[in-house]
Amino acid sequence: MPQTRTKLFAGPRLRQLRQRETLTQANLAEILDISPSYLNQLERNHRPLPHHLLQKLCERFGLSPAWFSNTKEAHTVQAMRETMADPVFKNASLPLAKMADAVLTNPDLCAAFLTLYRAYKFEQEREDNALLPTPNLEPYETVGDWVQQHRNYFHELDCAAEKFYESLDLKNGLSEALKTYLLDHHGLHTQQDPALEEGGLVWRIDRHRRTILLPPDQPPESTLFYLAQIIGQRDQTRLISSILRREGPKEKNALELGRVYLGNYFAGALLLPYKRFLHAAQTMRYDIERLRRHFGTSFEQISHRLSTLQRPGMEGIPFYFLKLDIAGNILKSFSANRFSQARFGGPCPLWNIFRAFATPGQVQVQLSQTTDDSIYLNVARTVGHEGVTYTDRPRQIAIVLGCTINDAAKTVYADGLNLNDHRLVVPIGPGCRACMRDNCSHRSLPVSGRMLDTGSDARGVVPYRALPEKP
């Protein structure tokens, strides 16, 4: 039976803390009431950090358990594993244990290797299709990696949005408060314009008429978000530019996409201010339907905001958030926990996000186990808008929000589930190319980079099996 608590190897973080506090190994060992040799093993990742020592460290130094998380390393290991599954590395013997060790001891080298591999994949795809003269997807990957490094939380911008919300006069509701602010501070009226839908626009500013034009059939939660977007665009330019200049992507297209992302981040944080939203989420046990009604926002807006609750000392549940279309194309992906989706190839078909398309508007709950033996509670549902006319072809989109089984009981979605009985836990993988599960009847192609045993005396659920990795 799989373990419900993932072993935490936090050596680099432990060493960083000790050096920050100017402590010797002997000093810190004395504080933790352990031997210096045991501390040395912990710092070298020869032993996992026990939960009781994690608690003691957090209490002694005023830290959150998330500070010691090896989430970033877990994501890098998954990326390394998937990359090494490429047939180009078929003669390179690199077991998972060695990949994990490389990530822990040489993280910068591994990051450079992954960057080089992405460049190689792009050049390969460009050669296959001469019609692609520029790397259209590269800026999105760059911004996605940058957001992931921040665990999808930007403190300065989040606090600015919260401060702005608290300054508003909300006696007539948030929508009227935002419209009044735009009129009083920017001289902008709001007006409906049916022609916007024909042009594929969700809002437009007519500078000559000092008017914000909005489609007439837009859901109210969308209107709220777009008004908040415009306020962020006009009021937070200096702060957003400062964040990007200090730590943002350097490539021009990625930089501009980062600016768009931060503008959207401000809008979401304004509609759902951190302290108020966190309190409501914890009180309502992260019930997304109740939260969306309480705040007058959409299922997607609530789900996305739940994935950003990582304010130091005031963290919510670390969720991963993923949005994809019915073809399996990933549109958004953020993770505040160890979960990491495939970078190349389609997601695992056993994931409940695909079942959501068969039951539009209904929540699908699933317990799943990834290849590193972590167990997650996944909540999936379709989102998006219905067609306005018969000729409309609305995009079919679903999202999934997931937390580890250790946090599952804090949510309403664990009610009725036996979290200690793992017989119904669904095994999911990072995509067939990198998944090591040979007994999966849903496998669509062999695992890459491994010798295959087609077998002459027995036949499995798939006609090929990967030979075991060499130690």
UniProtKB/TrEMBL annotation:
PROSITE patterns: HTH_CROC1
Coiled-coil boundaries: none
Record has DNA-binding as a keyword: yes
Entry keyword annotation includes Transcription regulation: yes
Top-rank taxon, per record: Bacteria
Domain HTH cro/C1-type: 14-68
Stored Gene3D superfamilies: lambda repressor-like DNA-binding domains (1.10.260.40)
Keywords: DNA-binding, Transcription, Transcription regulation
Pfam family, one: ScfRs
Family as reported in the entry's similarity comment: Belongs to the short-chain fatty acyl-CoA assimilation regulator (ScfR) family.
PANTHER family with a match to the protein in the record: HTH-TYPE TRANSCRIPTIONAL REGULATOR (PTHR46797), HTH-TYPE TRANSCRIPTIONAL REGULATOR SUTR (PTHR46797:SF23)
Full protein name: XRE family transcriptional regulator
Organism: Acetobacter oryzifermentans
